[in-house]
Amino acid sequence: MMYANPTGPMATLLGLVASVIFVWVAMRLSVVLPAAALGEPMRLGESWTTTKPISAALWGLPCCCQG
């Protein structure tokens, strides 16, 4: 016997979109920790600005990993 998904397809889609956005934001901000490890502290705003030229390309990774 098959049971219906109690959350429905809309909740599944919302969860997928939210996880892709979360991973994209995390990748944009992930430059901060390696910079600190190298002794060059970086603020979150600097990380966001530094990754701006590749921000469009960063959409590909979370989209590929989720699919």
Q: How would you sum up this structure in a few lines?
A:
It contains 4 helices and no strands. With 67 residues, it is mainly α.
Quick tags:
67 residues, mainly alpha, 4 helices
What's the helix-strand series? HHHH
Largest pleated sheet: none
Q: How many separate helices?
A: 4
Low-pLDDT sequence parts: none
Fraction in helix? 55-70%
Question: What is the CA-atom radius of gyration, in angstroms?
Answer: 17 Å
Shape annotation: elongated
Estimate the mean pLDDT confidence: 83
Helix-strand category: mainly alpha
Number of strands: 0
Report how far apart the termini are.
Answer: 27 Å
Relative strand content:
under 5%
Protein model, in words:
This protein has helices at residues 8-29, 32-37, 44-50, 60-66. The model has no long low-confidence stretch (mean pLDDT 83). It has 67 residues and is mainly α. The protein is elongated and about 50 Å long.
List the helices and strands and how they pair.
Layout: H1 8-29, H2 32-37, H3 44-50, H4 60-66
